[in-house]
User: Fold this.
Amino acid sequence: MATVQYPDRLPLPQRASQNMTQDTGFLATQPAVGPAIFTPVTTDLKATWSLTWLFTLQQAQVFKSWLRSPTYCDSGRNWFEMAIDLGDNQGPQVQTLHFTAMPVQTSKDGIMVTWTATVICNGINDGTADYDDWIVEAPTGYEDWLDPLVTVILPEA
Assistant:
């Protein structure tokens, strides 16, 4: 199946409604006696997001057509790329996503239309993942120079 692009002319999902859930990569066993046991199972973890879009009537028509068109989302059967906010200060980052069920038009209020859906990603694309240790160990106030470091200095190195 094809991977299609989310239309550039449509707004991204509302940031306040982007609730991310990640898989657990370990099995927890709590015996009746003795300490809890945590067994690593996998590092291949998927993530899901509950999303809400707020569209004008014209944008809602584009979304609905993109969703059902065989050329694009093919009634939700195709994977698609769209920027998702990972909940940090890096802003939205492009992820390869799939709807877990067809999106639902949850309201139409005058000229505004709300759609909701849950999407799944088989591996989060996070531009800062390679720098986790550095980010954790960075001194207070690093936020002011982390963005230029990751987006300008490191790519040129």
Q: What stands out?
A: Residues 143-156 form the longest helix (14 residues).
